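To: structure desk
From: M.T.
Subject: fold request, one chain
Message: Could you run this one when you get a chance? Sequence is below, nothing fancy, just the single chain.
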Amino acid sequence: MMAADTLVLLSDIDGLYTANPQRDASARHFPEVAAITPEIEKMAKVRFRRVQRRMESKIAAAEDCDIRGAAVIIAAAT
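Reply: Done. Structure tokens follow.
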């Protein structure tokens, strides 16, 4: 509904990981995601079970921005 070129989402996790970094020390951070793929969506659903809905909503917002050509930043609120 708004015209913006960047969306900043503040979270308790500083971005997208292969697993929940608060529980898995081997979780790998994705410094950049070029596109929201089915694999990224699946990772948000499967890997973040405890915070599944929050991560899914962030991915959905990122996908919506991607369609509109806007950048998305997921950063730690701390």
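Reply (cont.): The helical segments are 38-46, 52-68. Let me know if you need anything else for the meeting.
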